[in-house]
Amino acid sequence: MIGILWGVVVVLIAFWAIGLALNLVGGLIHLALVLAITIAIYNFFQSRDV
Fold this sequence. Notes:
The protein is mainly α and 50 residues long. It has helices spanning 2-22, 26-49. It has one domain (2-49).
């Protein structure tokens, strides 16, 4: 499950970089990136408690 999450994070970072470079749909990509990073950090701390 963590592997899938990191895959999503990598894809969103790539889309964010493309959106930043091309200035297309920047706000939506930034929102998705912030959401993905928040979920990744949450899951990282949850997995450390086990």
